[in-house]
């Protein structure tokens, strides 16, 4: 709670003025943290910054996690990892360790080396094995940065402007509202929002689609640098 409040206060001082002039924004009010998030641009409602770490029982064997489980990149060799039914066996994916079954949660990731990726959330029971399409009907709510395009993985895909590809992305879920939103974490602008009804635990989801990509999760501690 406190970490969030400090983060928000600092953020408000930096961006608040600028955003309050943006069309479609809710009123920005530091005290109004319990107001429901109507506009995806309204950063006022983020009640919880999630301390996301990667789950070493889920990563596909070519994905190497850092010792602190905050960073993932592709390895030169396939690792010999313990069997786990939660582990992706074909697609180059990894999940966050903690799942969420209520409340609001926000985390940020940084992409290095202009790699290609998919990032979002998935459910506890969605498919992990083989190759399969990822969209809300298979339990995946993700954005996809591919070689030449940027998509929201709806069915069919929703093309997003390449200009919106962020260096650092914020992912926000509001479980009860059925909202999953993606932001440019540097200037806090909205990229895309999925809406739906969730009945299962939701886990942060990350995929690296080429050899050069690196995804780093930012922890709440680092937010205090604002
Ligand atoms: C934020 O950055 C993105 C990507 O550079 C840009 O497309 C967008 O217009 C920016 N938004 C604001 C509010 O500055």
TrEMBL record:
<dbReference type="InterPro" id="IPR003879">
    <property type="entry name" value="Butyrophylin_SPRY"/>
</dbReference>
<protein>
    <submittedName>
        <fullName>Si:dkey-219e21.2</fullName>
    </submittedName>
</protein>
<dbReference type="Pfam" id="PF13765">
    <property type="entry name" value="PRY"/>
</dbReference>
<keyword id="KW-0732">Signal</keyword>
<dbReference type="Pfam" id="PF00622">
    <property type="entry name" value="SPRY"/>
</dbReference>
<dbReference type="InterPro" id="IPR001870">
    <property type="entry name" value="B30.2/SPRY"/>
</dbReference>
<dbReference type="InterPro" id="IPR003877">
    <property type="entry name" value="SPRY_dom"/>
</dbReference>
<dbReference type="InterPro" id="IPR006574">
    <property type="entry name" value="PRY"/>
</dbReference>
<feature type="signal peptide">
    <location>
        <begin position="1"/>
        <end position="16"/>
    </location>
</feature>
<feature type="domain" description="B30.2/SPRY">
    <location>
        <begin position="31"/>
        <end position="224"/>
    </location>
</feature>
<dbReference type="InterPro" id="IPR013320">
    <property type="entry name" value="ConA-like_dom_sf"/>
</dbReference>
<dbReference type="InterPro" id="IPR050143">
    <property type="entry name" value="TRIM/RBCC"/>
</dbReference>
<dbReference type="InterPro" id="IPR043136">
    <property type="entry name" value="B30.2/SPRY_sf"/>
</dbReference>
């Amino acid at each position: 709670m406190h970490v969030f409040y400090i983060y928000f206060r600092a953020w408000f001082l930096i961006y608040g003025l600028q955003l309050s002039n943006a069309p479609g924004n809710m009123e920005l009010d530091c005290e109004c943290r319990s107001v429901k998030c109507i506009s995806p641009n309204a950063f006022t409602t983020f009640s919880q910054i999630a301390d996301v770490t990667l789950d070493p029982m889920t990563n596909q064997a070519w994905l190497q996690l850092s010792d602190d489980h905050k960073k993932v990149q592709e390895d030169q060799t396939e690792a010999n990892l313990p069997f786990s039914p939660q582990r992706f066996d074909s697609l180059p994916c990894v999940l966050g360790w903690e799942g969420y079954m209520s409340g609001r949660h926000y985390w940020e990731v940084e992409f290095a080396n202009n790699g290609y990726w998919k990032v979002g959330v998935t459910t506890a029971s969605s498919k992990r094995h083989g190759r399969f399409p990822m969209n809300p009907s298979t339990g995946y709510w993700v954005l996809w940065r591919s070689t030449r395009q940027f998509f929201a993985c709806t069915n069919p895909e929703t093309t997003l402007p390449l200009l919106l590809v962020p260096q650092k992305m914020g992912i926000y879920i509001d479980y009860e509202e059925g909202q999953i939103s993606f932001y440019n974490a540097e200037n806090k602008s909205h990229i895309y929002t999925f809406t739906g009804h969730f009945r299962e635990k939701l886990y942060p989801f990350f995929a690296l689609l080429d050899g050069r990509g690196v995804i780093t999760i930012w922890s709440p501690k680092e937010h205090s640098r604002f």
